[in-house]
Amino acid sequence: MIELTGAPAAESLLQQARDRMQNLPVVPHLHVVRLGEDPASVSYVRLKDKKAREIGLQSTVHVLPEDTTEAALLALIDNLNGSRDAHGILVQLPLPSHIHAQTVLERIAPEKDVDGFHPRNVGKLWLGQEALLPCTPAGILAMCDHYQIPLSGKHVVIVGRSNIVGKPLAALMLSRDATVTVAHSRTSNLPEIARTADVLVAAVGRAGTITPDMVKPGAVVLDVGVNRKDGKLVGDVDPAVREIASALTPVPGGIGPMTVAHLMLNTVVAAERQQ
Ligand code: GUN
Where are the CATH 3.40.50.720 domain residues in the chain? Predict the structure, then answer.
């Protein structure tokens, strides 16, 4: 089994970001907004800020209290939308339940939407038009490219239908001429469907979802899950799948670094398009 580690694949995305920054008249500035102290969000936002600074981007993290009103959050976004010193805007999810996330995501100027979650970017993705791409799905494609995993004509089964991973990944895989199945918690014959996958993507958010009986021998398995189990980070894929798959992404250190790296690239791309 080949371990598909994220670091070398992420490095090529980061190098692309650094190279493209050299041709810009400004240093791109990423603004990340976090509400409250959800431990996973604190950790993710810290990683994004650290990587941005590491590659020479400007990075500002706006930490707001958990009880911030939706109006106040929207006012901050309006301010960043109008600022020439904000090239990328990302509001870390999940948001507290008194805030309507979709309203917030739709307020971000599409050209600064480095998460690719604005309906205009989502629509362009599905139409095959140039858009800011969601970071995890785009990072998954970059991972496949780095390790030369063929996608054209292959059956890609995505388990999970979230707006952040499953749905946009389906669009990107279609753009690479894969045959795509999106399975989810209500899929009645998940093991049978999963076993037909050449490339199986686990994006559910529950440890142990993908068991060895669900994997075709020799399949490539991409584990997008990040779950805490006995104080340890684990993916959605049962470790016994290592014996069946030809290649598997580790958790941590697999897809995670690709997401962060693609965010850096998106920030540079957004800044380019704002010149
Ligand atoms: N929370 C978990 N994943 C993501 C992501 O890709 N973007 C944002 N904004 N929040 C997240």
Answer: 135-255
pLDDT for res 79: 98
DSSP state string for 11-40: HHHHHHHHHHHHT-SS--EEEEEEES--HH
Place of tokens 């694949």: 9
Class of domain 24-109: alpha beta
Decide: 121 in ligand 1 pocket, CB within 6 A.
no
Distance (Å) from CA 94 to ligand 1 centroid: 7
Q: Is the dihedral of CA 176, 91, 48, 255 positive or negative?
A: negative
> Is 15 a residue of the active site?
no
**Residues 156-200 pLDDT 10s:** 999 999 999 999 999 999 999 999 999 999 999 999 999 999 999
Domain spanning 135-255, CATH class? alpha beta
Question: Parallel, antiparallel, or unpaired: how do β-strands 232-234 and 227-229 relate?
Answer: antiparallel
pTM: 0.98
Q: Are strands 247-248 and 220-223 parallel, antiparallel or unpaired?
A: parallel
pLDDT score for 162: 98
Active site residue 16: no
